[in-house]
Design a protein that fits this description.
158 residues, three-stranded antiparallel sheet, single chain, alpha+beta, disordered N terminus
Length: 158
């Protein structure tokens, strides 16, 4: 069985080397009630996260945010929460509030401690230039969340 390594020039080794990308795949497969993604390669599951600037320009901002895009956003931030939880032992939750126009926010929290707070704009166009960028952004959010969890562990346990 061969793996297609032609995902915008990114190789499947990116997925293998990134705990965050593995966490996204795990979140997506965990929400897959019909087993659709069971036999899909990790690169194929992560492909919708790669949205070039040209492709972003082609996505219209009028109308509702696509349910698949909402699911991608949720899986991304749930993976952030799962990685923080794995490192700190604090149970982490995700809340996404998104208007029909594509504006809103994301909170990742543990107890009463806010680990990640992000504003979403143009959610219709949620995506990154490459899988490396996805992994970098996730790692930054995880690092900041872990830092907060370690600085204020008593708040995270409330």
């Amino acid at each position: 069985m061969s793996i297609d390594n032609s995902l915008n020039g990114t190789a499947s080794s990116t997925v293998v080397n990134s705990p965050f990308l593995k966490a996204i795949v795990q979140q997506i497969r965990g929400q897959d009630t019909y087993g659709t993604y069971r036999n899909w390669a990790d690169d194929l599951i992560l492909k919708p996260y790669v949205v070039t600037k040209q492709k972003k320009r082609e996505i219209p901002l009028d109308g509702e945010v696509d349910p698949l895009t909402k699911a991608r956003i949720m899986a991304f931030y749930r993976a952030v929460a799962a990685c923080i939880e794995k490192e700190t032992g604090l149970i982490s939750q995700v809340v996404v509030d998104l208007s029909h126009e594509g504006f809103g926010w994301v909170l990742v929290f543990s107890g009463r401690l806010l680990l990640v707070a992000r504003t979403l704009r143009d959610a219709h166009r949620f995506g990154f230039d490459s899988l490396e960028k996805v992994a970098e952004e996730g790692a930054k959010l995880i690092e900041k969340g872990i830092d907060l969890a370690k600085r204020f562990p008593e708040v995270g346990k409330l």
